[in-house]
Amino acid sequence: MMEEIVYQRSKYLRPMLTYYCAGCQHGIVSKILVELAEEMNIVNNLAICYGIGCYVAGTMNLDLDMFPALHGRACAVATGFKRMRPNQLVITYQGDGDCASIGLGDTLQAAARGENFTTIMVNNQNYGCTGGQLAPTTPIGMVTNTSPYGRSVEAQGYPIRMAELVANLDGCRYAARGALTTPAQIRQAKKYVRRALELQQQGHGYTFVELLSACPSTYKVPFDKVKAFQEEHVYPVFPTGVFKEE
To answer: What's the CATH code of the domain at 221?
Structure first.
């Protein structure tokens, strides 16, 4: 009896050990990127500009063209690259601290200008790369290493909802938020990224996809409680879906 292959690893995902913590979902983003690059036949016309965060260690797993930016400056660097090579597809791969804190101005200005590239912001609600400090996306009440009693409105203000914020800018043509915990969520997240890239191919302007990622190392809950933690603390603050499409 012949066995049918229903799935196999993309050849653009290098067969090597991951540097991510156990349960980190950055690896899922890597998988989405290489699969879409292969499925859309854009491997030779795709460049990924990455910022500073946990995902930097994972870039060596991707056999795709990539180039770095200083912390928070991925959208600025990608702007220059895209304007010099307007026919090449460009993605900025950033975390919530990189994209929504030190890089907030660069992100919003790129969206306001309608730069024709795609930003993927992986939102794990803390600065996971540097030890789990409070981030601009940390939900109210969530404990981090710099908010040991939980984030409060009085002390740290409200979390930033980037997908909704970017969607309000005229230069933004597409803004969506997905999640990465369940198979159904991952399939939907991949559709969001695909649509963003399709619109970029058509020259429509700035596209933005936020992906909610777990950070078990800093959630301070057992691994088997991560899904329940997200359902209680993360998803109510950051609803998934498409917030703008033009």
So the answer is: 3.40.50.970
